[in-house]
Each structure stands twice: as structure tokens, then as C-alpha cells.
């Protein structure tokens, strides 16, 4: 058995539901409550009694089975809960995860024939959910909304699928989707899946250049977008961004014949939308004309489902490729257990479908379970900070899944004197307590570590001390939850993602790649495969192996640091590579650097992450200018604008630090360790600077720090 199993075995002897949390006003400061024993927060007896996994014993029993017999465990779920046109071959899973033994390969349910759209819609409709609400859509503007039942959703999906077929989209073709959170976004994903096309959703906050880069990489048959979207009071002209991207990709030899554009009437009228005759097509003009039924394209479990680009430690985004069968089984099962899903739940995940969370836990995981899903178009603090709880009350949301950055912005965290913190927290509290929130049952967190004080505020204030928090650790690459609480199963510790999901074997290794046991911290790796794992990086299997499987041979390397405490709980400590996590969005330092140096007056740039009150991490950029160019406020603004234009507004540096020189080793390597210390003003911790080619640059940088 694994180390982890031993930890969990000792966990099983812990009491469950042994303590109750009383509601104290002091909780608004996010401090530990007197009733928390050794930092444990216990689920209530009532919650545990009704939970799918009601105790550590039950978890342990299932976890053990999943590790000792993964093929039996997963094939049992796959065959009893999904529709397969044809069952998989003899092997449930075939894999090589060791670079020393040849090419990395992961296959689950190979030979099995299925369709994930069929499993989301037709299968649930056949099981009696035809008239159940599938999607509630809430517009940016309060008062505007819409909804679709499962059968209405199927009709819309089929119409689009038929249209896509009519313009020649076939199994295996890529489709680029650049849409905000309209119902048309999950509709598009499902329509692609229905006909075996491979969707690649690009977050609608990316710039035209980033979009063009992705178009050039995956060469789609069609681009699907809308004319504009409103976020808070701002109107964003998405179609203009697409137009610019298509000009750019044409320069790189990729021209797109069809740009299907949805008219998002609440944001912009048709008449005001720029149009290219022959290429651009209004969704509303064509899609509704197609039949509301569409035959399913049956695909192999290992046929690609989607590509999603994510940031890595070099400049070029990586096309993470997920396939059909394993991803389907994994997202559905993780959704069900980590949120203790019941048929009567109303589920709202605030993530955008442009990120993996929106793929696995807005669209596929919930829909595979036949859940009712809330999709919200706008900004969480518009028209005010109470909007989220307004939506929770309006739709009687029972499961609310969000990111720590949102929790922190709503609790108005601050590092001022505690008196002011208290006052501002009291003010922000009103935005929460104005609403009932009594429908809430389970809360969830994702994207970055949640600090214990934000955890407690979320738990005590938002959830009224009733709702367990599933702090789900996972990645674009993993497809679904990897380390996550199962609500009701065991006591939680604020800030810990707790234990691995079924079938997942996390290991913590030291620099040499040796597994370390017991209380420890190190690099987080995973042993063995799980059905939701990504299969390759699109067009670059070599990079897949180098990035993820070569650093610690025999394991999948996550890029995260992690520690395990004496009770076996896991604590994620953040990225250990050159990736920064800003408001839960992954950004490669190299991407920001290459955007900065594309500015004609910037000679060199070095970007590091710094702690940020609300965003978790902020972007701090050191820039060296071209010889003779003076640094000015105007130049600072134009550097930031360059990053906004090249990547997107969310990647704009929080701070530009003018650096006449950068600290480099004699071999010319930038010493980021030193830059990180300067950025966070930990000037007494600079460490050894004697190996620098020019040690003087450090003092120079410090002198310029706040200029
Ligand atoms: C799902 C998602 C992945 C990176 C990951 C880690 C961080 C995500 C976390 C968390 C601590 C959690 N991360 N969830 N860190 N606790 N619950 O966010 O995917 O965009 O690929 O980011 O996010 O650093 O490596 P992705």
C-alpha cells in the first residue's frame, strides 16, 4: 500500500461530526473558533448523515479499492453510469508513465465507443429529466435572464451541430470558440462533442494576438464568437478582437472561411457590429433553421474531445489535449462526490468556460450528472458586492463553487490596522447578510490556495457555518479534482485540500525525486494514472514528456509544492516553476516577458510573482530599456498596454520596476531569486550576491524600487 493509505488509515480513527461550530460574531475576522479542536472543523451530524460518503471509513474503503484495483473500480463506474455504444476492449487502462521505459502513453477504455454529449443530454432525457432545468442564465444586468430544460438544450445543441456539419465540420476538426458566459458557450461545446469535432475555447479576456496564436496552432474550420459582452458597466467588443485576430492569423497562412457570430443583444445591436460579408454569419440567421435532432457521431474513448491552451514556463502556450471516455467518467465522478451531489441541487460555478474549471465543472461534470446549472454572464460585484448572494437566493443555489480571489475581494481583506479591517469587514458583511443564502449546502474553492482567514469567512459568513467547503486542488492537465475534501466524510482544516480523490496517489518528493514520507514538504507528483489525465500537448508530445514526466522519472510532476502534516492532510503551497497564479489564472512569466520585450523601447524584462492581497499573486516586472531611452510615466503606461494587447487585461503587470541592469550570473542567467526578494521588499533576505556578474546592480535596483 502507499504511504498515503497509511495516513488515511490513521485518519479513519478520528471522530466524525464530533464537534459543532457555534456562530460567533468574531468570525468576521476569520479567526479560529473556540470550538475548533486542533484546527479541525467538523461537518455537522446532519450533513454527514445524508452525505454520499458519510465517514472516513467509507472513504477509506472506496479509496483502497480504487488503488488496489483501479481497472475494476473505474470500469464498474463507467459501465453502470454511462452509455457505451460498444464496450471497451480487454484492457481498461494501458499506460507507460516512465520515460525510462519509452514514450509516455495513457489510455483508458480504449476501444469503447461512446459520445459525451449523448451522455450529458440524451441519456438524462431518457432517464426522465427532459423537463428538468439544465441551465439558468443570468445576464450581467439584473432582471434579465433565461433558462433551458434538458430537452430544450438538446434541441439547441442539435441545431448548431447540424449547422456545423452543413459547413463541413467533421469528426476530428478543430473549432475555436471565443464566447463569454452565454448559454451559447456550453451549447457550442456540446454541439462540437456531438459531431466529434474538437473544441478549443479561448477565454474571452484574451487579446487578439493570443487568439491568433491559438488559431494558428490548431487551424480551426470555423471560429464561433459573439458581437459584444457587458461586464459590469463596460461593453467589450469581442467581434472586433476576433476580426483583428483573423487578420493576424491570415498573415501566418491560416485563413478562416466562417466566423459564426451570435448577436448578444443586451450588449450590442447587429447594426453596430463590423461585418465582413462572405465570412461572417449571424448565428440567429442560420442556426435556428436547422432540425432539432441530430445523429450522434460515435467516437472512441481515446478520440480527442477538446484542446485547451494553458500557460507553462516558456513563452508558447501549451495545447492540453483531453480525450473522451476517461475524461467523461472522471469529471462526472469527481463532481458527484466532491460536491455530494443530489438530484435536487442547484449548482453554480463562477468560473468561465474559457478555463478548465468551466469545461469540467460548468459543462461536462454537472451535465453528465443531470444537474441544474447556473451560468452568470457578468461581473461578481456588479451592480454591487451583493450580486453573488442575490443570484444564490434567486435560483436557490445549493452548491456554490468559486475562487479564493473572489472570496477575498468580497470580504475586503486588508493588511491595515485591525480596527480598520474590522470596520471594512463589517461594511462588506452587510452585502452578504442582506441575503438569506439558506439554500446553500456545499461551498467550493479552486484556482489557488485559500488562506485560512478567507476560508473561515467563506465558511462562517457566507455558509452560515453549515456548509462544508470543498477546496479542490487540480489542474488543466488533470482534467478533474485530484486532492479534495469529500463533504461530510471527515473534519476539515481551513486552507487544506485534505486528501486525494479515489484512484489518485499523490506523492511528495525531494529534489532528487525520492518519495518522502510522513510529515514533510517538497514537490508534488502523482504516481500512476487516472482516467481524466491529459494525453498529450497538441503537436508536441516531446514537450509533454519533458515538462511533466522527465523532472522526476516515474511520476507525473505537477509544478506545485506541497506539504503533508502529521494527520496526513495536504497543503498546497503554490507553483515551484515560472508560472504565476493571478486571481486563479495561470500566467507564465515568460509570456509576460516576451510581451514586454516586443515593445520597441524595452530591451529586457524579468517578471516575478509577488504576494497580492486580493489576487493571491500580482505581476511584478523588471524592465531594462533600450540604450538612451529615459524611463517615464508615459513609457510605463505604454509597457502595460503592450501586455494587455498581447495577452489580455488580466495579465497586465501590477508594477513596472525600471532596471538599468538585471542581476545575472556570470553565465548570463537572470537570478530570479534575488528579484523576488526585491519585489517583495525582503531586502535583508537577498542572500549571497557574490556570484553575480555585477553585484552593484542590486543596490541600484533597490534605490529605484519606489521611483
Ligand atoms: C483548476 C485550475 C492549476 C494551478 C495548480 C495550482 C493552482 C488550483 C488549487 C490550487 C491550491 C487549490 N491551484 N487549485 N492551489 N489549492 N485548491 O485552477 O487549473 O488553471 O491549470 O491551474 O492552480 O498551482 O497547479 P489551472
UniProtKB/TrEMBL annotation:
Molecular functions (GO terms): acetate-CoA ligase activity; AMP binding; ATP binding
Reactions catalysed according to its record: acetate + ATP + CoA = acetyl-CoA + AMP + diphosphate
Domain of life: Eukaryota
Keywords, in A-Z order: ATP-binding, Ligase, Nucleotide-binding
Primary enzyme class: ligase
Gene Ontology biological-process annotations: acetyl-CoA biosynthetic process from acetate
Domain AMP-binding enzyme C-terminal: from-to ranges: 591-669
Pfam family name, one: AMP-binding_C
Occurrences of domain AMP-dependent synthetase/ligase (ranges): 130-529
Domain annotation Acetyl-coenzyme A synthetase N-terminal: ranges: 59-120
The EC number(s) this enzyme carries: 6.2.1.1
Residue ranges of the TM segments: none
Keyword ATP-binding in annotation: yes
Family: Belongs to the ATP-dependent AMP-binding enzyme family.
PANTHER family per the UniProt record, alphabetical: ACETYL-COENZYME A SYNTHETASE (PTHR24095), ACETYL-COENZYME A SYNTHETASE 1 (PTHR24095:SF14)
Protein name: Acetyl-coenzyme A synthetase
Species per Swiss-Prot/TrEMBL record: Gossypium davidsonii
